[in-house]
Amino acid sequence: MAFQLPPLPYPKDALSPQMSAETLDLHHGKHHKAYVDKLNELVAGTPFETQTLEEIIRATAKDTAKTPVFNNAAQAWNHDFFWHSMKPKGGGKPEGDLLTRLDQDLGGIDKFRDAFKEAAVGQFGSGWVWITLENGKLKIIKTSNADNPIAHNLTPLLACDVWEHAYYVDYKNRRPDFVTAFIDHLIDWNFVAKNLAQHPGQKAA
Ligand code: MN3
To answer: How far is the CA of 161 from the centre of ligand 1 (A)?
Structure first.
């Protein structure tokens, strides 16, 4: 059973004007699809064919002979996670346990905004910015190219794609404006809370 391109969790025009239908058409329909198609090509007839994306990512993360498989499996996973990190009329502030954790671990929503933006702008070239869970604490990290938290045994909670293809149609070279719009209008904090709740063993005491 070949890997499939998962559908977007909302209509293509649902994130407009912060992320246009044109961007989603290209980013999901062309870029994300290309990673899935390439992965299928690379794993055909190998044991990876029957594994999950997460299993492939863990198995190939440190194997330089398998870099193309890692890159395409990770990008296939990263993009699906990114689509679910956003929702129409998202942004604002999280609630409940997640808000407490954000206050404790990241110094509150304003400090989070600054640190997340700094990480996004500071990522040289292509990559991703994440909220992860590390040793029971929320943490902001950035990764290059296809690299992701799963490859480092961290738990991803939120992803923002900062490859140029994520924002060039709507923001040209203005990555900071894209990331500000992502934080203020697109983040689905319920998705973050749901991911956090799946790791109760890592909750703060
Ligand atoms: Mn992308």
So the answer is: 6
Q: What's the gap in Å between 146 CA and the centre of ligand 1?
A: 9
51-150-164-167 Cα dihedral, nearest 10 degrees: 90
* pLDDT per residue as tens, the chain (205 positions): 699 999 999 999 999 999 999 999 999 999 999 999 999 999 999 999 999 999 999 999 999 999 999 999 999 999 999 999 999 999 999 999 999 999 999 999 999 999 999 999 999 999 999 999 999 999 999 999 999 999 999 999 999 999 999 999 999 999 999 999 999 999 999 999 999 998 755 444 3
**Structural domains in the chain plus CATH codes:** 21-84 (1.10.287.990), 96-202 (3.55.40.20)
Buried b (16+ CB within 10 A) or exposed e, 159-195: bbbbbeebbebbbeeebeebbbbbbebbbbbebbbeb
In the reported structure, the alpha carbon of residue 165 is separated from the centroid of ligand 1 by a whole-number distance in angstroms of 6
- Dist. CA 151 → ligand 1 center (Å): 18
* Spacing, Cα 32 to ligand 1 middle (Å): 7
Give 97 Cα–ligand 1 centroid separation in angstroms.
30
